[in-house]
Design goal:
alpha/beta, Rossmann fold, 7-stranded parallel β-sheet, 9 helices, 7 strands, about 35% helix, globular
């Protein structure tokens, strides 16, 4: 699986027109009290510190860090009910309700007040659909979006496809995303996302940003 080199990434992901979207790296998804334990276990293998390092590099370079979190109203109002996944979420003991610890980004990645932005979604599978994120990116002149987080099963591909359909360049650091089983996630990167996004890694991207 080929990844783009430092020089090309420096142009494509120039901080002047780039944002970092961190998808569902919240306590209730990949934290100790996860509603999807298998995904949390996979993320514990090194994903979280890599995403944290990427977010730190983004902030240092002036790249906006956008935390895309999934939430649900306490009574479930407005949430989807048209797929098995949503039924599982409704039955889970972990409720991703506003104001709860479950919807907070994991501490290792954190949210820097006055710098980072948190964008919540209350329906569907993608943080770019009906959340206002697209309008905010366009208002800030963003042309390239770096997508990190979970999971390669659902939310990350949805995010990438929506952004590509919206005309953005999309960069995916392959070591800052994961799915379950892990081998399946690697296949999604190689056989699907590589056709629509630029693949790189955290070290290359962070290096390009630091050089800028």
């Amino acid at each position: 699986m080929a990844v783009m080199d430092h020089a090309d990434i420096a142009i494509l992901a120039d901080p002047a027109h780039t944002a970092l979207c961190v998808v569902e790296c919240q306590n209730g998804v990949i934290g100790p009290e996860s509603s999807v334990p298998a995904l949390a276990e996979a993320a514990a293998g090194g994903l979280i510190p890599r995403v944290a390092a990427l977010a730190a590099a983004a902030r240092a370079a002036g790249v906006k860090v956008v935390h895309c979190v999934a939430m649900i109203h306490p009574d479930g109002w407005g949430a989807n009910r048209n797929a098995r996944l949503f039924g599982v979420a409704r039955r889970s003991k972990v409720k991703q309700v506003p104001g709860s610890a479950a919807v907070e980004p994991v501490a290792e990645i954190g949210v820097v007040e006055g710098s980072d932005v948190v964008v919540a979604r209350f329906h569907g599978l993608s943080p770019t659909s009906g959340t206002g994120l697209d309008a905010m990116l366009r208002n800030e002149g963003i042309a390239t979006v770096v997508v990190a987080g979970v999971s390669l099963n659902l939310a990350v591909p949805n995010t990438v496809f929506d952004l590509v359909n919206g005309g953005y360049q999309v960069v995916v650091p392959t070591d800052a995303v994961i799915g379950t089983p892990v081998a399946y996630g690697e296949m999604v990167l190689e056989h699907t996302l590589s056709y629509v996004a630029t693949l790189t890694d955290v070290e290359t991207l962070a290096g390009a940003w630091s050089a800028s």
